[in-house]
Amino acid sequence: ESSVCCSYGDSRVVMAQWDAVFTASNGGKVTTGYALFSRLFELAPGAKDLFSRVNVGDMRSPQFSAQMVRVMTGLDLALNALADQPLLESLTGHMAAQHAARPGVTVDGFRMMEQSIMEIMPQLIDNFNPDAWSNCLHGVIDGISNGLS
Ligand code: HEM
């Protein structure tokens, strides 16, 4: 669908820079997920209601923290599969089906999450490479939101 291309070189950069997030002192899946979803809820306040089942009213709760771990683990799996297209498609396709099963989750919401990731990651990653990230992240987000309205 998209014209941007995640080259092999782009994928190497993104995978290395992503790994740095989880070794940095301020890293960690919960902290990073919290930052990403805080920005998402600023961009798309209505999306918050989708997460009532996981206690979004208290974003520091164990329930919402667990949601952050699930999301960030899914993103971790996808980004680490960037250089293996069939594996990537299988991983993102599975997550697309999980999201299609949740009424109210839209492509627009995922576009906002893409924006959030592109805004937050430069704060966590030294020498953030915006071209490599936008080239590779776009396909991942497309894959996870494939089939949503
Ligand atoms: C980086 C992007 C994202 C990734 C990797 C991701 C990954 C996941 C994963 C792995 C789950 C658990 C699925 C399950 O156990 O059935 C999940 C649940 C969910 N996701 Fe996402 N997600 C992302 C973005 C979004 C966005 C942007 C929205 C909404 C606009 C969203 C809405 C939901 C909802 C509503 C659930 C179910 C929560 C519940 O258990 O009640 N996700 N997501």
TrEMBL record:
Domain Globin: 5-149
One Gene Ontology CC term in the entry: extracellular region
PROSITE patterns associated with the record: GLOBIN
InterPro entries per record: Globin, Globin-like_sf, Globin/Proto, Haemoglobin_extracell, Mb-like_M
Top-level taxon of origin: Eukaryota
Sequence positions that bind heme b: H99
S-S bonds: C6-C136
Molecular function as annotated in GO: heme binding; iron ion binding; oxygen binding; oxygen carrier activity
UniProt keywords, alphabetically: Disulfide bond, Heme, Iron, Metal-binding, Oxygen transport, Signal, Transport
SUPFAM superfamilies: Globin-like (SSF46458)
Stated family: Belongs to the globin family.
Protein known as: Extracellular globin
Lineage: Eukaryota, Metazoa, Spiralia, Lophotrochozoa, Annelida
